[in-house]
Design a protein that fits this description.
binds zinc ion, five-stranded antiparallel sheet, single chain, alpha+beta, 22% strand, two-stranded antiparallel sheet, Peptide Deformylase, 3 helices, 193 residues
């Protein structure tokens, strides 16, 4: 089921989400709905608070385009357990701040620990690139932080003024994906080796 997205400004986007205590069918259903919502809005990442669920759950798919196989990854209680010394800058956007983008510097590489949708613990290094950025962006959401919080006050206020005038439909994190995904594949959660 596709869910409604919260849009900035909304105080619910600035609250720390709670840990999932047990990965059960309700969590798997939430993940399924989050994937459906993320793909419907052509996003490459979505965090539960963006659909007004205050739980530490994120989904991503950073596979590059229409002709590429989907690569859905769901993480329950994700935690960044290591970050590299060197940073990388990427242009970010957000399904909760549609149509606006900003250049954000984050650690280029991270290691993340999480539980899968079946409750199995995982711990993966994410080398540089879009996935490392996307996971950090989504984990920020779980702590009530939007990418706008990483921009200069000048740039942030410019975007906030525009969002107050009304959001325009736009693309989401980093780049647009002009495709509708095959949702039957979404239960292949988990990073590919
Ligand atoms: Zn976002």
């Amino acid at each position: 089921m596709q869910m409604s997205l919260l849009a900035e400004p909304d105080s619910r986007l600035h609250v720390r989400s709670e840990a999932v205590l047990g990965v059960d069918g309700a969590v798997a259903e939430l993940i399924s709905d989050m994937f459906e919502t993320m793909y419907a809005f052509r996003g490459i990442g979505l965090a539960a608070p963006q659909v007004d669920v205050r739980l530490r759950v994120i989904v991503t798919d950073v596979s590059p385009g229409e002709n590429t196989a989907p690569n859905p990854i769901a993480m329950v209680n994700p935690e960044i357990v290591w970050v590299s010394d060197h940073d990388a800058q990427m242009r970010e956007g957000c399904l909760s701040v549609m149509g606006h983008f900003g250049d954000v510097s984050r650690p280029a590489e991270v290691r993340v620990s999480f539980y899968t949708f079946t409750g199995n613990p995982r711990n993966y290094p994410l080398g540089g690139g879009l996935l490392a950025t996307c996971i950090q962006h989504e984990v920020d959401h779980l702590d009530g932080i939007l990418f706008l919080g990483h921009l200069s006050a000048l740039k942030r206020n410019m975007i906030l003024r525009k969002t107050l005038k009304g959001t325009k439909p736009g693309s989401c994190l980093c780049f647009e994906k002009g495709i509708a995904r095959i949702l039957s594949e979404i239960f292949a959660f988990g990073p590919r080796a």
